[in-house]
Records
---
Amino acid sequence: MGMDIRITENAAVFTGVSCFDLNKSALCGQAFRWRETAGGVIGVVRGTPALAARDGDTLKVNCAGVPDAKMWANYFDLYRDYARIEKEVMNDPRLSVCFPEAHGIRVFNQEPFEALISFIISQNNNIKRISGIVERLCLKCGSPVPFMGETLYAFPTAESIARLTEDELTALGTGYRAPFIKKAAERVADGYDLEKLKDMELDEARAELKTFPGIGPKVADCILLFSLGHSDAFPIDVWIDRAMKALFFEGNAAKKAELYEAVSALGEYSGIIQQYIFQYARKLGREGLSSAENRT
DNA sequence: AGCCAGGCTGACG
DNA sequence: CGTCAGCATGGC
């Protein structure tokens, strides 16, 4: 506890930050634009390029100019007490196996439109390919931002994506998702307010997102968890499905209602716990998970 | 080479 | 409520 912030001409330095594995968090598949470099991870958030690095309990965010420290603190979720959440998870015999693999994962607060488009792209896709598509999209129509001798690209505005043709979107490798992306961008460019979903009840916000073509329950929950502050949104993809089956149901297939019941019993931070489970599941792999059943 | 991926949709029972 | 094919694309 007791996080402290110091701002210099071109960096924000946060001390007293515990439970934060920056590289793991940035590269685990919740966000798609961070790249590992010698000094940490480099990326662009809300149009601002940065090189972030951890050292002990310190997080340093190097920017091109005076940083917006509050923006970065919010992005990296530094105001949340992860030690308490990790402790809770460690004390749950079904979940403690997720450590140490999951230790230090934090759930970032991404820009909502970026999350909307990124997770539409993510459906029935793999993380490496999603990252490539998102990067090509930024190169195609995002604003160039010079940083440390190279040119990075901001995530595009809704207007600039809406201007692309379906053929142009397909050429980026988006496949059948191209019309979904275009329609979502058009809707936001046309004034749809994603921010209002922050203040809605989870069920209501989820139903709202599902009115977008190409967004079902899983993608909706990703957007809600990773960009709209709904820490109890619980995206269930193939990995989480396998892991929940192994950890909570002794390897047996669970009915959907039972699964949702187990999820809601995890409480208001279930979405963050979901991310621990996801990390664990991907580390173990399919066969690892199936052999981990019934092992407490 | 063929299965799979941070799934959704529509059809069908 | 549950299942199932089809969907583009390329990583592995």
---
Amino acid sequence: MYTMEIKYEGGNIILTDVPDFDLRHIFDCGQAFRFDRESDGSYFGAAFGHALKISQNGRDVMLHSTTEQEFNEIWYKFFDLDRDYGKIKSSLAHDDVMRQATEYGYGIRILKQELWETIISFIISASNNIPRIKGIIERLCANFGNEISYMGKTCFSFPTPERLAALTGSELSVIRAGFRDKYILDAARKIAGGEMSLDYIRSLPTPEAKAELMKINGVGNKVSDCILLFGLNRADSFPVDVWIRRIMEHCYFGREASIKEVSELACEKFGELGGFAQQYLFFWARDNKIGT
DNA sequence: CACCAGGCAAGCC
DNA sequence: GGCTTGCATGGT
């Protein structure tokens, strides 16, 4: 049995004996764009309007300069510390592919991110690459977010729908998002204007939530699946991007396969654990250039 | 210089 | 329904 302990010491939260947890796996598997590795191996970023430095030594994890209240209200849920990932991995590791993928990314956790932020982040991800996605989101926050003072540094929160809805296309062009500008504005205006409700979307069953999200211009099949998985905690969602398609073709089909075929096989093989399987596969395949 | 990057929408049949 | 093409920007 795992025996994770939570202590509050010297203004930091210290977790000991954290199971299935690795910062590089968590932040480099492509689910979050606002946390970066520092030269000392720690990660620095922001979520839910709060900044965080987090570091790890083996199974011990430190959340720097954080209160118990903030940990309980934000970071405990954000890092999905409630969930038994050992059980998930053993349920998935029924073939050689998933055995390798779950062993390689053993410390992956699916972060529970803010819904609004995932909508905009994955709109930006379309036909883009991860370094540039990060750059665009950084400029979005620096220009239109609120200042956060933390550990002697200044960083920025993710801008609200209201803030972005008030912008013109040319004002938004400073973030250099290209053709995605109009999609970002469409999302912000639908939500800030009350035409679309995030709380209502949260309350919907997955298929209905997906249909509602796809009313936003720039949110299609794949982007909506990412929003469902990362922003709405729908772990059965299996986003099929070019990487997942290639790895599934290479490892399971042995031929080219359509997105629909890939989705159907994932549903069959992984079922309600599809989202976890997707993250293990994505991290493993990209790091090892499998299927390329 | 082409070609592509966690896709999508619009325009075709 | 499925299949093509243009799309902004930046990197190789």
